Amino acid sequence: MEDGRTLDLRRITIRLDQATRDGDMELHLLTNLPKEMAGAIEIADLYRSAGASRRRFNNSHSGSTRNSRRWDIKAALFGFCVGLLSYNLLATVVASLRAVHGEKKVDEEVSGYLIANDVRMNAPGLDVMVEAEEWTARYGGLSAEEMAIVMLTLARHVDLRRLPKAKPG
């Protein structure tokens, strides 16, 4: 990085059954997500589904002019990035819950949908009650380790009974 810091990344190689239009038989992805947060297969599947979404998006706009298509692709990429950010947020929350309440309990009993829904429902109220500057002052300067301690502290106060996973059948 330009400021002298280093960035730890993993490279994930996807071997293709069919060559790309450029003749490549492999794709290489870089990620800074830790293995325990997202495995190589999960990241590859996410990339694959993003590619399918991008193709559907491009096909649905095939009649657009060249200039507007450029903006369509930028909008699709922005949407993908927002989705990836949301996924990372959910994965961080779930990892915190696992660390505090146990992996098995969280994986078997807690609904990721209800976690995401809880964030969606409560975020507007937090926006009204707490100014952005307060969030930045409190959390903006924390290191990753300090933020992890905050996440674990908050996870201790989560009542998992409010987030039950749906039972099959």
How much is the average pLDDT? 82
**Low-pLDDT windows of residues:** none
- N to C succession of SSEs: EEHHHHHH
Shape: globular
Helix content: 55-70%
Determine the structural class based on helices, strands and strand pairing.
Answer: mainly alpha
Radius of gyration: 20 Å
- Spatial sequence of strands, sheet with the most strands: 1-2
Helices, by number, come to 6
Relative strand content = 5-15%
Distance between the termini: 51 Å
Number of β-strand runs = 2
Largest sheet: 2 strands, antiparallel
Detail the topology: elements first, then pairings:
Elements: E1 10-15, E2 26-31, H1 40-60, H2 66-101, H3 103-109, H4 112-129, H5 132-139, H6 144-155
Antiparallel strand pairs: 1-2
Summarize the structure.
The protein is mostly helical and 169 residues long.
Task: Provide an overview of this structure.
The chain has a domain at 84-169. Helix content is 60%, strand content 7%. It has six helices and two strands, in the order ββαααααα. Helix 1 (40-60) runs antiparallel to helix 2, helix 2 (66-101) crosses helix 3 (103-109) and helix 2 crosses helix 6. The termini are far apart. The mean pLDDT is 82.
